[in-house]
TrEMBL record:
<dbReference type="InterPro" id="IPR008952">
    <property type="entry name" value="Tetraspanin_EC2_sf"/>
</dbReference>
<comment type="subunit">
    <text>Interacts with claudin-11/CLDN11 and integrins.</text>
</comment>
<feature type="transmembrane region" description="Helical">
    <location>
        <begin position="39"/>
        <end position="62"/>
    </location>
</feature>
<feature type="transmembrane region" description="Helical">
    <location>
        <begin position="203"/>
        <end position="226"/>
    </location>
</feature>
<dbReference type="InterPro" id="IPR000301">
    <property type="entry name" value="Tetraspanin_animals"/>
</dbReference>
<dbReference type="Pfam" id="PF00335">
    <property type="entry name" value="Tetraspanin"/>
</dbReference>
<keyword id="KW-0812">Transmembrane</keyword>
<keyword id="KW-0325">Glycoprotein</keyword>
<feature type="transmembrane region" description="Helical">
    <location>
        <begin position="7"/>
        <end position="27"/>
    </location>
</feature>
<dbReference type="GO" id="GO:0005886">
    <property type="term" value="C:plasma membrane"/>
</dbReference>
<protein>
    <recommendedName>
        <fullName>Tetraspanin</fullName>
    </recommendedName>
</protein>
<feature type="transmembrane region" description="Helical">
    <location>
        <begin position="74"/>
        <end position="98"/>
    </location>
</feature>
<dbReference type="InterPro" id="IPR018499">
    <property type="entry name" value="Tetraspanin/Peripherin"/>
</dbReference>
<keyword id="KW-1133">Transmembrane helix</keyword>
<comment type="similarity">
    <text>Belongs to the tetraspanin (TM4SF) family.</text>
</comment>
<comment type="function">
    <text>Regulates the proliferation and migration of oligodendrocytes, a process essential for normal myelination and repair.</text>
</comment>
<keyword id="KW-0472">Membrane</keyword>
Length: 244
């Protein structure tokens, strides 16, 4: 009984955590959306936010039903928990499916983004490239030499890459290819893929963890329901009655 009440309290806390994870995915995706065109990847995040909101309502229903020992309320609690459990399993499956698609999606998009880079009058995609190179400490798609194949590099004719390729420790760096030691050596594609896959793993692990909590909640609620229906002494204890 006390365990079930605790689980109801945890459901409200879990709701906040799930909503936070979903929001984190949305915010991070916004930084990398130019490198990943498949918006369906956000479906797990949308679902997990919806589950978080539903968990908050479930927590209230469960706590009220447990305190009042409402058979109907507990049965409703179990059914909703079962639906949420199934939803979280779906989130895990979708997370793994889209995690596997990340590499192909990034490979397809990143070439186009770098090709249209404009460092003189930067648009949203160009600013995204500079942001990613600074944040992930990378340069180019596979390495800094990839910039030599871009239209921007050919138009500037100064044999240099964007300043976002400069290492933080290289204070006098001007992006010149004549000083490669001042530039980040690693390409961005692999790091972007790794970052997006890490984000998807946050969703997967969150869904798995709270699916386990939901399963425990269902078991506890079922035990309470079974005790009410099979144990007359338990019923009398709840109602305040006595044996004749």
């Amino acid at each position: 009984m006390c365990v079930l009440i605790k689980l109801c309290d945890w459901s409200t806390g879990a709701a906040g955590i799930l909503c936070y994870v979903g929001a984190y995915v949305f915010i991070t995706y916004d930084d990398y959306d130019h490198f990943f065109e498949d918006v369906y990847t956000l479906i797990p995040a949308v679902v997990i936010i919806a589950v978080g909101a539903l968990l908050f309502i479930i927590g209230l229903i469960g706590c009220c039903a447990t305190i009042r020992e409402s058979r109907c309320g507990l049965a409703t609690f179990v059914i909703i928990l079962l639906l949420v459990f199934v939803t979280e399993v779906v989130v895990v499956v979708l997370g793994y499916v889209y995690r596997a698609k990340v590499e192909n999606e990034v490979d397809r998009s990143i070439q186009k983004v770098y090709k249209t880079y404009n460092g003189t009058n930067p648009d949203a995609a160009s600013r995204a490239i500079d942001y990613v190179q600074r944040q992930l400490h990378c340069c180019g798609i596979h390495n800094y030499s990839d910039w030599e194949n871009t239209d921007w590099f050919k138009e500037t004719k100064n044999q240099s890459v964007p300043l976002s390729c400069c290492r933080e420790t290289a204070s006098s760096c001007n992006g010149s290819l004549a000083n490669p030691s001042d530039l980040y050596a690693e390409g961005c594609e692999a790091l972007v893929v790794k970052k997006l896959q890490e984000i998807m793993m946050h969703v997967i692990w969150a869904a798995l963890a709270f699916a386990a909590i939901q399963l425990l909640g269902m078991l506890c609620a079922c035990i309470v329901l079974c005790r009410r229906s099979r144990d007359p002494a338990y019923e009398l204890l709840i109602t305040g009655g006595t044996y004749a």
